[in-house]
């Protein structure tokens, strides 16, 4: 939601100020007439004062920390997704909402149903099972979630890999979501997980921030496994978000250098090379099997591409145009080779960091 507000806040201001959506809006043109009439009634009366307040907040070249709280001053708690593959979004939300809003992961849910509830809101990735033969689970072991329908005729593999971390009331296991089976990078059995990549990126961005004296955070990432003329490697797309005005200037310089808009800057060039080297080395430290394949030269080093700002919003839009539901839309952290339209979009809006 906040991504949409940040991108289309001018449309929001227009609708509030005039109490009528723009007629040339693609969304508006697709809405039936009876629903249009009801929406226009709900927008009444025009509120130019609120429109001005939103403009004052959103028109800054660099949005202040807590701008989401400024837009919704009565907001005190928000339900958010959590888990290994989504935890980096919490940093982004904390920057948007500031320190006065509690982030709460309410439950472990999916399209198939609600499978668990959150026992401890202070730890956003601890849940309890709702459906499972859990009496055979062991502490600190990994399990894949399988659910059975009421009559027991069908079993569904959720694709979620969980780790049992505690027990409550004797036999109720508490678990954390580790990764999804479909989001593993693999060529020769190295099985690089989302959790490993996100942890590596967070450490690498921290190192980059210390080097450049910035405060970048990770917007999102996605990856794909590549076999190019029997050269095997993983390609990683990364988007960074500046937090301060100076960050925005430096990020513009980094992207300008990669896209050839700015002259070569030795300091920035070295920083990017060190960033790419640190990511690959840290991933080797995190995953023994990945390290072993790198040392054997069967796997080449990571192919790391830095994305323009707004690239992952474009990725979501492309997914929706492809028929994905807006309510259940998730950024794919692993894009298969078959999804060439998504891969092409990412390549067009990013540039390779050369080691």
Automatic annotation (TrEMBL):
Residues 201-337 form the GH3 C-terminal domain. Transmembrane segments: none annotated. It holds the Pfam family GH3_M. Residues 138-180 form the GH3 middle domain. InterPro entries: GH3, GH3_C, GH3_M. One of its GO terms (cellular component) is cytoplasm. This is GH3 auxin-responsive promoter. It comes from Didymodactylos carnosus. The lineage of its organism: Eukaryota, Metazoa, Spiralia, Gnathifera, Rotifera.
């Amino acid at each position: 939601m906040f991504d949409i507000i940040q991108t289309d806040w001018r449309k929001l201001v227009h609708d509030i100020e005039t109490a009528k959506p723009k007629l040339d809006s693609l969304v508006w043109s697709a809405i039936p007439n009876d629903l249009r009439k009801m929406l226009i009634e709900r927008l009444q009366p025009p509120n130019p004062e609120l429109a001005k307040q939103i403009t004052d907040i959103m028109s800054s070249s660099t949005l202040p920390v807590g701008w989401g709280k400024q837009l919704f001053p009565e907001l005190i708690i928000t339900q958010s997704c959590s888990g290994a593959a989504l935890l980096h979004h919490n940093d982004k939300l904390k920057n948007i909402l500031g320190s006065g809003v509690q982030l709460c992961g309410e439950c472990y849910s999916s399209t198939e149903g609600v499978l668990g509830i959150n026992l401890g809101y202070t730890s956003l990735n601890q849940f309890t099972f709702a459906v499972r033969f859990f009496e055979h689970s062991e502490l600190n072991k990994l399990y894949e979630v399988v659910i059975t329908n009421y009559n027991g005729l069908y079993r569904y593999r959720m694709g979620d890999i969980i780790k049992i971390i505690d027990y409550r009331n004797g036999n109720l296991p508490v678990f954390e979501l580790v990764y999804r089976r479909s989001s593993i990078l693999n060529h020769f059995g190295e099985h690089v997980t989302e959790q490993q990549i996100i942890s590596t990126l967070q450490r690498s961005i921290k190192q980059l921030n210390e080097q450049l004296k910035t405060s970048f955070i990770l917007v999102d990432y996605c990856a794909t496994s590549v076999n190019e003329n029997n050269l095997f490697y993983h390609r990683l797309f990364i988007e960074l978000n500046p937090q301060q005005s100076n960050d925005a200037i430096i990020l513009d310089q980094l992207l300008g250098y990669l896209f050839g808009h700015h002259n070569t800057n030795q300091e920035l060039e070295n920083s990017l090379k060190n960033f790419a080297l640190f990511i690959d080395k840290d991933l080797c430290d995190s995953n023994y099997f990945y390290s072993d394949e790198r040392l054997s030269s069967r796997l080449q080093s990571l192919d790391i591409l830095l994305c323009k700002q707004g690239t992952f919003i474009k990725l979501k839009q492309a997914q929706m145009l492809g028929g994905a539901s807006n309510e259940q839309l998730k950024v794919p952290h692993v894009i298969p080779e078959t999804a060439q339209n998504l891969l092409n979009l990412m390549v067009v809006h990013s540039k390779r960091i050369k080691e």
